[in-house]
Amino acid sequence: MAVSTTTTNTIDEELNQFEKDIRQLKIEYEQYFGGGRKRPPTEIEWRLELVAKRYAERSGELKFGQRFRYNNLSQTYAKYKDVFRKRLQQKEEGKVSRHFGSAAKKIEAERAERRAETLAKAEAAAEAKGSVHKALATFRVVCSKPELEAEKINKLYEAFLEAKQKAGEDTLKFTRSNFHEFVIKKTKDLQKTTHCHDVEYVVEVAEGHVKLKALVKG
Question: Is 199 buried (19+), middle (13-18) or exposed (0-12) by CB count in 10 A?
Fold first, then answer.
C-alpha cells in the first residue's frame, strides 16, 4: 500500500509528539509524586493512549523506520505506565516511599535556618537600636540668659552631637557657633512670645531620631 508524502509527514510529526508526550508524562508524574501537582497527568496519558491504540491498529501503514521507532516508544511508554501504576497504588495505600523526601527535608531545614538567621538579625538590630536609645540618656539644661551661658550651651551642644553620632545620624551641618546662635535666638523668641523666664532644652530620642526640644518654663 503506497503512502503519500503528506501522510508520511503526519505520521512522523505524530511520532515526534508521541515521544515528547512520553517525556512530559514522566516529568509530570514525578512532580505529582513529589507533591508539586495535585492530580496525576491524566490528560497527557489519555492522549498517549489514543496514539498508541491508533498506530497499533495501523501498523501496516508505517514504513519500517517508523514502525521500529513506534515500537521503541511504545515499549518505553509501557515501562513508564507500569512503574507509575505501581507507584500510584503505593500512594493510594499510603506506602509511597518518596525518594525526594530527604531533599525536601533538607530544603525545608535550610529555609528554617534562613528564617531563624533573619529573625536573629532583626532581634539583634532591635536590641542594638534599643541599646543606642538607652545609651542616649536624656540631657536637659535650662537657659534664661543664653548669651551669658556659653558653658551650658556647650554642654548641650556636646550632648546633642554625641547623641546624633551614636544614632548614626548626620552631624556635618551642626557647628558649635551656629548651634549657639540657634539656642540664643530660640530662647529670646520664646521669652518674647510666651513671656517666660526660662527655657529648658532637652536632648531625646523619639521614633529612632534624635531631637532637641525647647520647653517653656515659668
Answer: buried
